[in-house]
Design a protein that fits this description.
five-stranded antiparallel β-sheet, 1 helix, about 20% strand
Length: about 180
């Protein structure tokens, strides 16, 4: 029995996979591997970013809590703006009012007594305290109007991890109102 010419198997036509097919297959596998590794790397970066953000927010909130528990103005005198000479030092134990924290750089972060906060040595905190107008909290003034804007920025190297902004007011009866606005990058 003879097979038609189109169906006959010719030993010369059975060559296997050509080099072009191998190259194209290798290219496709390579592109898929790069895509897979890129996705894994992006996922890992996202996890690290979120972890730093949560850690940063925790130490920002702790510092804001420490600051807002103090009186608005120095209880012993009307001593000006920022920490006085007696309040400077290696820890914040002598800080007795909100404006003593003005321009504080806490790197690496420490407790009020000066003890290093474990697990946060790669972060730093920076505090800005501004006097703002009663009528417009975006307007910074040079005189005390009863409203402070407290901004705590947490950095990892030179990159901002989070920023916590708190407005503190002193009412006529000594009451305090606080509003939190958290901007996480």
């Amino acid at each position: 029995m003879r097979f038609p010419k189109a169906i006959r198997l010719n030993p010369k036509s059975r060559r296997g996979i050509s080099q072009v097919e191998v190259a194209v297959s290798s290219l496709i596998v390579g592109v898929l591997m790069v895509a897979c590794f890129s996705a894994v790397a992006a996922s890992r970066r996202s996890q690290v970013y979120e972890s730093n953000r949560v850690r940063g927010l925790a130490i920002a909130e702790a510092l804001v809590s420490e600051i807002t528990q103090l009186p608005m103005r120095d209880p012993s005198c009307d001593c000006g703006w920022g920490p006085g000479n007696e309040e400077l030092g290696s820890n914040r134990m002598n800080f007795d009012d909100v404006d003593d924290y003005r321009d504080l750089i806490d790197s690496p972060p420490r407790s009020r007594s000066g003890v290093l906060l474990t697990g946060y040595s790669d972060l730093s905190r920076r505090v800005a305290i501004d006097r703002v107008a009663n009528s417009n909290w975006n307007s910074v003034t040079n005189t005390y109007a009863g409203v402070y804007r407290i901004t705590v920025r947490v950095l990892r190297g030179s990159s901002e991890v989070c920023r916590l902004v708190v407005y503190r007011t002193s009412g006529s009866q000594g009451t305090t109102a606080i509003a939190n606005f958290s901007s996480l990058n």
